[in-house]
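Box 3.1 A note on notation
Throughout this textbook, protein chains are presented in two layers. The first layer is the amino acid sequence; the second is a token string describing backbone geometry. Keep the layers aligned when reading.
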Amino acid sequence: MSLTLEVLAEQETCLQLDEFNHATAWALGTWLKRSAEAKQVSVAIEVYGFGQVLFAYAMPNTSSDHLDWIRRKRNSVLRYGKSSYYLGRYNAQKQREFENQPHIDSQEYCAHGGSFPIRVKNCGLVGAVTVSGLPQEDDHQLVTEALRAIQ
């Protein structure tokens, strides 16, 4: 099932937090780890906020490539303020690839699902939560499940 741009935009409106701090980052990261373990999947996880990595974990069977994907997905979210999955779907609808646009450095940015903006209600964008290791829609779904769980 492929999520529509409208559904993806609605997720970003609904999945905002009342607060975000180091304890929230830890709760989000550990929820993702436990959920991935329960589903018996391997992902790399990052919770990034206020200009720094607040939580990071690489499960068995992941590699440094996953960490690079995380960095590029996160950079896209922080630059454009949209989930990396939304960016990819939006550009696909425009019949273009995000990474092939002349103003995009594909070594720094990508539009593959798995990174989602962390927004605090009445405050705005403060970071991103990212996973890598599954098909992009599954990465995206895992992150949105985590945000729903800790709201």
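Helices lie at 5-14, 22-39, 64-80, 84-93, 136-150. The chain has one domain: 5-150.
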